[in-house]
Design brief:
- The chain has 469 residues and is an alpha/beta fold.
- It contains 19 helices and 9 strands.
- The chain binds adenosine-5'-diphosphate and magnesium ion.
- The site of magnesium ion has 3 residues, from helix 5.
- The site of adenosine-5'-diphosphate has 16 residues, from helix 5 and helix 12.
Length: 469
C-alpha cells in the first residue's frame, strides 16, 4: 500500500501537484515534462480530488494518448487509491470543460467525462454547439480577413440591426471561416447570455431534418430553428442537391429575417457560384453582406505562428518562424498542424525544436505524408555515386570502393530511416547487426577527421533527401 500525500491534511493543491510533478519528472523526458506538465496549474484540492488547469483541450487529448498510464500511477501514488485528477480548461475566467482521471480506472480515463459546466441556468437548456476556443481575441487580423473580421464584430454588436443580414462569409479551406462565425456566437453569448444562439453545419442540419421526417417531428424541428435569435450555419455548400432541406431552410430563413433575427452563414464559394442551390436561396443570401477571406500573407502567417506558439509556451526564433511561414502558405490549419507536429516530434524524441526538426516537420506537412526513405533507395543513390553495381554491396565483395559504398549506405540507412540495425543488416545480404554498428562507427569517425569525405557523404545525403518529394 502506497502512502499518499492526502493522508497529510495540511496539504495544499500546490503541494499535491508538486508531488505529482516530482513523480512525473522522474518518469518522462525533460522536454515532455516541460511541454506538457509544467504549464499545468493546480487549482483546488478536495480530499483526494485534485483539480488542475490545463491550457486547452489538445493538452488533455495529447496527455491522454501518450501519458495516461504515468498519470494513473501518479494519481494513485500521490492521491491514493481513491485519487482523482480533474482537468479544467479555463478561458476568460469561465470554467469551460472538465475531464476526470480516476486512479483506479483501467483504461484511458482522461477524456472519460467531459462535463460542460453550465453557470447560466437560462442558457443551460440550449446547447449552442459553440466551441469557446473560437474568439475574436485569438483571431489574428491580416489583410485577407480584415473585412470579414470587421463585419463579424459589427454583427455581434448590433444583432440583426445592421444591413449585414445575413452575413455571408466565404473562402477556402482552413482560412478561419468556422473560427470567425463561431466567434460571433461566443461574443454575443458572453455579453448577452440570454440570447438564443445556435451554431451548426449544414450537413448536421440535413441529418437532423431527415431524422425529423422519420420521427414525424418536422414542425418541432422547424419551430426550434425559427425561435433562435442568432442562427449560424457553417459550410452552407453542403445543402447543394438537397432540395427538401433547402425548402425548409428557406422558410426558416424568411421567418428569422423578417423578425430581425441575425443569420450568419459560411461557404467555400460566393453565393452566385453555389450551383445546384435554389435560386431563391441564392438571392436571399445576397440580401445582406457577402465577404471573403483570403489566404494569409507572409506577415500574417508569422503573426499567427508567433501567437499560437506562445500559447503553447514556446518561443521560436525569427529564423524558424520565417522558414515555416515561407513554406506553409496555403492555409492556417496547416500552420497550426505544423506547430502541433513540431511539439509532438520534439517531445516524443526528447529533442529541442531546432532547425533540423523544423525542416523535417515542414517537409512532412508540405508533402502531406511522412517522409519515408527506404534502405533500397539509399543504396541505389550511394551505388550510383560510387559507380558500384548494387548487387555487389549485398555480396561478399571486399574491393575497397564496394566496402566504402556498403558502409556509407549502412551509415545513411541508420541516419535516415527508423529501421533497426538488424533490418539494415538484412538489406545488405543478411549481414549481422554488429557489422552495421561497425560501419556506422567507422564512417562516423572518418567524417569527423576527413573534411572532404564529410562533404561527399553530405552531398549524397542531400541527394537522397531532395529526391523525396
Ligand atoms: P475553415 O472553417 O475556413 O476551414 P477554420 O476556422 O477551421 O477554417 O480554421 C482552421 C484553424 O486555423 C482553426 O484552428 C482556427 O482557429 C485557426 N485560424 C484560422 N484563422 C485564424 C486567425 N486569423 N487567427 C488565429 N487562428 C486562426
Ligand atoms: Mg470550417
Amino acid at each position: 500500500m502506497v502512502n499518499s500525500v492526502t493522508n497529510d491534511i495540511s496539504v495544499t493543491p500546490k503541494g499535491a501537484w508538486k508531488e505529482c510533478l516530482k513523480f512525473i519528472k522522474a518518469k518522462v523526458p525533460f522536454l515532455t515534462y516541460n511541454t506538457w506538465f509544467l504549464p499545468i496549474k493546480p487549482l483546488e484540492l478536495n480530499g483526494a480530488e485534485l483539480k488542475i488547469q490545463v491550457p486547452n483541450n489538445f493538452f488533455i487529448e495529447w496527455i491522454d494518448e501518450h501519458y495516461s498510464s504515468i498519470i494513473k500511477k501518479t494519481v494513485k501514488t500521490v492521491l491514493g487509491e481513491t485519487g482523482k485528477l480533474v482537468y479544467v480548461i479555463l478561458e476568460e475566467k469561465d470554467v469551460v470543460e472538465e475531464a476526470t482521471v480516476i486512479a483506479n480506472k483501467k483504461d484511458s480515463p482522461v477524456q472519460e467525462e467531459i462535463l460542460p459546466v453550465d453557470n447560466n441556468p437560462v442558457t443551460s437548456e440550449l446547447n449552442s454547439n459553440l466551441n469557446p476556443r473560437y474568439t475574436f481575441d485569438n483571431f489574428i487580423q491580416g489583410e485577407g480577413n480584415q473585412l470579414a473580421r470587421a463585419a463579424a464584430i459589427a454583427v455581434s454588436q448590433n444583432l440583426g440591426q445592421t444591413s449585414f443580414n445575413p452575413l455571408f462569409i466565404y473562402g477556402g479551406v482552413g482560412l478561419g471561416k468556422t473560427h470567425i462565425i463561431q466567434a460571433i456566437g461566443n461574443s454575443i453569448l458572453s455579453k448577452m447570455p440570454n440570447k438564443k444562439v445556435i451554431y451548426l453545419s449544414s450537413d448536421i442540419f440535413t441529418v437532423e431534418f431527415v431524422e425529423a421526417i422519420q420521427n414525424n417531428t418536422v414542425n418541432d424541428f422547424s419551430n426550434f430553428y425559427k425561435s433562435m435569435d442568432v442562427l449560424i450555419i457553417d459550410d452552407i455548400q453542403f445543402l447543394i442537391g438537397k432540395e427538401k432541406t433547402q425548402d425548409l431552410f428557406f422558410h426558416i430563413f424568411n421567418t428569422l429575417h423578417q423578425s430581425g433575427k441575425q443569420i450568419v452563414l459560411s461557404s467555400d464559394k460566393p453565393p452566385k457560384d453555389l450551383k445546384g442551390l435554389n435560386e431563391r436561396l441564392i438571392s436571399r443570401f445576397q440580401w445582406g453582406l457577402t465577404v471573403d477571406i483570403q489566404p494569409p500573407d507572409f506577415e500574417t502567417r508569422i503573426a499567427i505562428l508567433k501567437n499560437k506558439s506562445e500559447n503553447y509556451g514556446l518561443k521560436l526564433s525569427n529564423e524558424i518562424l520565417e522558414y515555416i511561414s515561407h513554406n506553409i502558405t496555403s492555409n492556417i490549419r496547416e500552420l497550426e498542424g505544423c506547430l502541433i507536429k513540431l511539439l509532438a516530434n520534439a517531445s516524443l524524441n526528447n529533442k529541442d525544436i531546432d532547425f533540423e526538426l523544423v525542416k523535417k516537420t515542414v517537409k512532412e506537412i508540405a508533402t502531406g505524408r511522412e517522409v519515408k526513405i527506404s534502405i533500397d533507395f539509399i543504396t541505389k543513390v550511394v551505388c550510383d555515386y560510387y559507380k558500384v553495381p548494387e548487387n555487389k554491396v549485398r555480396e561478399k565483395n571486399r574491393k575497397k570502393e564496394v566496402v566504402t559504398a556498403r558502409q556509407v549506405a549502412m551509415f545513411l540507412s541508420k541516419k535516415l530511416t527508423q529501421s533497426s540495425l538488424k533490418t539494415i543488416g538484412l538489406h545488405f545480404g543478411g549481414r549481422d547487426h554488429s557489422t552495421v554498428i561497425h560501419a556506422y562507427n567507422s564512417i562516423g569517425k572518418e567524417i569527423t577527421t576527413d573534411a572532404r569525405f564529410k562533404e561527399t557523404v553530405d552531398s549524397i545525403r542531400s541527394k537522397i533527401e531532395l529526391s523525396i518529394d
